[in-house]
Amino acid sequence: MTDSTRRARPLSSPSQAIASPRPRRWGWTTSAGLVALGVAVIVAPALARPEPPTRTDNTIVMLVRRELERKHISKHAVDDEMSARAFDAFLETLDPLKLYFYQSDIDAFAKDRDKLDDQFRQTKIDFPHEVFAVFLARVEERAATALKWVDAEHDFTVEETMVTDADTATYARTPEEADERWRKRVKFDLMIKLSEAEPELVENVVNPIDPLQNLGWKVGEHVEFPEDSGPKLNEAKDRLRKRYSSLAKRWEQTSSDELLELYVTAMTSSFDPHSSYMSPETLDNFNIQMRLELDGIGASLRSVDGYTEVAEIIAGGAADTEGSLKKGDTIIGVGQDTDGPIEDIVDMKLNDVVKLIRGKRGRVVRLQVKPVENPNQIVEYVITRDRIELKNQEARSAIIETGEKPDGRPYRIGVIDLPSFYMDMDGARAGIPDFKSATRDVRRLLDGFEAERQAGRPIDAVVVDLRFNGGGSLTEAVNLTGLFIDQGPVVQVKGTDGRVTPYSDELPGMKWDGPLVVLSNRFSASASEIFAGAIQDYGRGIVVGDESSHGKGTVQQLFDLGERLLGNSKLGALKLTIQQFYRPGGDSTQNRGVLADVKIPCLTDHLKGITEAEMDFALAFDRVRPLRHDFHGMAGSEIANHLQRQSDERVAASKEFSEDIRRIDKYETQKDRTEISLNLEEFLAERKQLDADKETEEISEELNDSDRPVFDIEDHYNKEAMAITVDYIRTLLASKLAVAR
């Protein structure tokens, strides 16, 4: 192996080139609204309501419109077509399930449906403020309706359904229709709360003599909610009262910057799914995510029915070092320094809570807390803020010993978990030599594998785990690929002028030239697809996982709007799609993704609405001319087919994969349904067979767990990935293609 400092062929503004999807459209989310105090969040001050538009807002709209028309890859004008798209997108952002607005509201708004483009040109932004004022009034009305139905009687044995599909749902035309819709919504939320509070219910449904016995209810009788029906029911009702009571309060805390961001992004996303406007606060948090560090206490928080709950303590952070704050604690107040007043944060938006708790290192923050062990007690914890490194979001490695070589020793597999292609853009622009870089971190991990070899413990293969890696810096994708290939093109980029430019690894030698496996799934996007596609085209390794990756083949660039107007740095940034990228072989990954060489059954391969092809206004797949590049012969259809057959045999004999396949089949029968049963017995029975929402929530929490292992070898999916890797090593050795290490 040889090591050298590698450079991608530079972009016109390399530190700002990004290749990542828009998370809100496809990423894992949780019903609790998990936010880490170190990931990108929108942070805004708590205000009663958005203030009227300002001259600065008008300037931002003017700059966004100008940059869209000049630099977006589509070359499309801001016209009536984009106006109609933006109109629909803005309303969908506020009310996706059509629970709040009346149809008459929508009809009144429709006068501006084809005029938003003209208003953008005139830098007028009255429309979102007018719509949002109506929205707040409707939220207050619906919250009152919901509270009424929490305390009403409900029959859980009746056969009725609730619409859950946004496309099928319609706006209520009368107060009576809205009231009925919210009756069903509250009934559904109560069923969710009861199923979470009483897991035995689900178990009893399998053989239902009396599936409601734990709450004293009988199947077939009218189920009422008397006050003495049990603590679990009362707790469920209390939590829902709190949720609906805080609903309007939290929406009223929407700042002017947030409303502007929602509205302007509705226009930019009408050009393609990945163009968006970032307010100054959002831009700050984006930079935190890319450099993987911030000043704070080191905790992940989530909002649960108006309360701020600790979801995770980041290992090695200030809160972890202090030792008092625990996972599950509820924070109800925040005070600054040693003597500042405690500010009540109950019902405060999570982003505003985050802003209060973050702060300069060395400064004290005081938290008023209800401990998870004793929620009736209120205590105060004093924590000194410090630099927090988001270690669980940077590249990490582990060495897995598995299988058996002919000499009886185990194979040793070096696994690298890479959550994103991160890069400290500010550090790169400032010329800091050791700015945070995914490539630099992966090179360091590969150095560790080389040290193992020199110590007589060689690594037989490297696995790069890109599952759930949504992308990041294009420069990092090119440079990191260069660690595994010799000189040559990594990606081709086509701009608005139609010219195609290659970006290459220009320095000779590889950091790792042995067997290479890339793990990928539907959530592996953009920069991940550049890496995986190049590895395939060069025949350097195999891609294992879901049938294909996400399918995002576009490049965005950040344009600081303030820099374009008198050096003002408080205008935020425009993330704009300016290029489309292609593999060395000429294929785009757009809409199609990178196809796996070996597929492993997984629910992620079947989830609805997460791929690029399912997004509104996504660009089409196309090709450009292939470039000359090396082919190492360490992959191909013959090798892939052989490995797939071996994997299929193991999967067919596995009880765990049989259960996975059963859940996949169940999901396939459910995913296109537009309604859900409000019969409690049927509801609980279905949730026992498959609760996709809960599974995605658990995956999200696992990914945010700072103590999670690099690679859980006890997981049957990971075991199969290791078995495929061992088969791959043996296949290459049999073909005399593997490098002896």
Automatic annotation (TrEMBL):
PROSITE patterns: PDZ. One of its GO terms (molecular function) is serine-type endopeptidase activity. It is an enzyme of class 3 (hydrolase). The lineage of its organism: Bacteria, Pseudomonadati, Planctomycetota, Planctomycetia, Pirellulales. This is Tail-specific protease. Residues 1-24 are annotated as: Disordered. It comes from the Bacteria. SMART domains: PDZ (SM00228), TSPc (SM00245). InterPro entries: ClpP/crotonase-like_dom_sf (IPR029045), PDZ (IPR001478), PDZ_sf (IPR036034), Peptidase_S41A (IPR004447), Tail-specific_protease (IPR005151), Tail_Prtase_C (IPR020992), TSP_N (IPR040573). The gene is prc. Belongs to the peptidase S41A family. Keywords: Hydrolase, Protease, Serine protease. One of its GO terms (cellular component) is outer membrane-bounded periplasmic space. It holds the Pfam family PDZ. Residues 287-364 form the PDZ domain. Its EC number is 3.4.21.102. GO terms for biological process: proteolysis; signal transduction.
